[in-house]
Each structure stands twice: as C-alpha cells, then as structure tokens.
Amino acid sequence: xxxxxxxSGTSVDGIDAALIEITGAPTELSVRLIRGETCDYPSALxxxxxxLCHGASLPLEELAELDDAIAQCFxxxxxxxxxxxxxxxxxxxxxxxxxxxxxxxxxxxSLQLGRGMAIAHHTGLPTVNNFRQGDIAAGxxxxxxAPAVDAALLRHPKFxxxxxxxxGIGNVxxxxxxxxxxxxxxxxxxxxxxxxxxxxxxxxxDGTQRYDQDGAWAAQGTPCLEVVQRWLDHPYFRQxxxxxxxxxxxGQDFLNQCQQDADDYALTSVDFLAxxxxxxxxxxxxxxxxxxxxxxxxxxxCGGGNRNPYLCDRLRLALPMATVKTTSDAGLDADFKEAIxxxxxxxxxxxxxxxxxxxxxxxxxxxxxxxxHLPA
Length: 376
Prior knowledge:
- The chain has 12 helices and 12 strands.
- By secondary structure, it is an alpha/beta fold.
- The protein folds into 2 domains: 2-143 and 337-373, ATPase, nucleotide binding domain (Nucleotidyltransferase, domain 5, 2-Layer Sandwich); 146-330, 2-Layer Sandwich (Nucleotidyltransferase, domain 5).
- Strands 1, 2, 3, 4, 5, 6 and 12 form a 7-stranded mixed beta sheet that branches. The chain has a 5-stranded mixed beta sheet with strand order 9-8-7-10-11, with helices on both faces.
- Helix 2 crosses helix 3, helix 6 packs antiparallel against helix 9 and helix 9 packs across helix 10 (309-318).
- The chain is globular, with a radius of gyration of 20 Å.
- The two termini are 21 Å apart.
C-alpha cells in the first residue's frame, strides 16, 4: 500500500509530507520512503496559526476558516508529494494549536486543525486524521504517538535505543533490545525542543530569521549553567511519565521569563542562544537519568533538531555513555520520520490495528486511532 503521511509540528515551520510504500502485516511491516517534501505555509497563514497558539482569541467563524485554510495547505502538500504516483491513503496529523495534558479526573484535550474530510475532498483520497482522540478517550495523554511506530521499525536486536525527536517539543521512545523480550517500551515528552530557540531567534532578528541554521549562532556563545539549572527546576521535569506538553507550557510566556533570567546575568545574544540550546540538551539528559529503566546504548535523533550540529554535540556531551546518531543511520529518514509515523498509523487504522502504546500515553488499553474520511 502507498500512503502519504502529513504533519506540521509545534514549530509551525511547514508541512512535512512523506510518500511511503508499506508492505507486510500490521505487526511485521516494513516501509520504504519514496519521496519527502517540506511545504511552507504562506506567511500570513503561519502568523495566524502562531497567534492562536500564543493565546489569541478567535471568533468561531474565523476558526472554521483557519481550519479550512490549513486543510487546503495539507491537501496541496499531499498532491505535491504524490506527483504522478498512485496513492491509496493519506494519514494527516494536522496542526496542533492547543494541547492540555490530563489532569486528575479530567481527560486530556488536544486540538489539531486541518480537517480530514476537507483533505479527502481536495485530494480524492481516503484520509485518516484526529489520531489523538482515540487514545484520549481511553484515558491517555494523546501524545506522544510515534513510539508505537518506533517500536515497529527501529527496535534493535542487541542495543537499547532511545529515539529522540526534537521538533518544537522533544519526545523520547525507549526501545529495549529485542533479546530482552517483554521489557517495557516507554516514552514521554521530554520538554522544549526547538520552540524556544526559534522564538528567540525571531525576536532577536525582528522576524527576519525563523531559526538558528545549523546552530551556528548559538555555537559562538557560552552556555550559562546557573541559568540552565534555574530553568530545569520547573515542575514539569520532575513529573513522572506518562506525560506530555506543548507551547502552552514551553512557549512565549516561558521564553519571556528566560529572557528576564538572561538579563539578570547580562548574557549576550549568542550566550542566550547557547544557554537555550544547553537547556534543551540537558532537559533531555535529565529526563533520561530520572525516568529510563537503564541508559541507552544508542540515541537516534530525528526532527528539525537533527539538522542542528551544535545541539547534537551538546547532547553527546550530556550523555557520553551513548552513541548519538540519527534515525537516518538506522534506515528511517530523520527529516521525515514523524510524517512516516502518521502514514503508518493511518495504515494501522485501515487494518483495525491499535496505534497507541498505553505504557507511553497512560491509556487504559490499546486503541484504534484516527477518523476515516472517504472522498465522494
């Protein structure tokens, strides 16, 4: 089956589209990436999404228009990556604009825009979306969802691996070696990934740059560890998994506090970016040391952070016991790994195969994920 996976993460930096070929039964599948594309949002639409993520109020009519505009962009991304190839199915994560973890007796809440029925209509292809809701209905966080796919595609016979996605928010999947049999696969959101760095660069450049390419700017600075330790005192890092987070916690308001702390230490712009980068690396390392059953032999990085050599070097220094590579080194494209994951989740949904890992999300049971929309 040929499936397109679509996702725009919490960085809101564009839509990743991956066309893959899936073969095998749901429990023993293999995937081949045929083509991957990253499609930018129109700048005005990106600004509207970011405003909403940062708490701007929006009348329901405008929310509906935004939902349709995002769906149109996702459909165009699907058609672009499809080219002249035959495609059977689309799996679309959509654009997260709000995520609330579960609290006491209250279910989690997660809202992704870019409605699947509109994508099916524009592309003429069956589309699966709203993946998080099935896990939330089963009492889970609704995130992260990639670990089930990581377990299917990236588990090693001998090595304990961590798959570390560094998008706007970071999340980890711990994959015990296959010879360990039924050892638990666990995972959680580790905290900020690129979101704070991107916001800081946009602020420092008055919006002329969206991110620190290759970490080159931060690499010129010196991290302030006292400030990093202050930030690591945030209660989220002590919270026991399962857990998830988003821009609601590590977004503009958090960055504003970071900037005040940086001003207290008279940090330069490059030192501030170096300190934010160190915070991302050490928050990942801290979560491993607190919550992993044992430290990994390998760490496979994916997402936008895999293209930041400075950040990856800081991660190597923070976790010297493990070899830090990318998922590309293990045969799964690091730039499109998350899009591939949602193509697989759509494939599982069409085959009535559960897509969540309760040990990761905290759900009461395995659940079918996603709503199926058939074109007219």
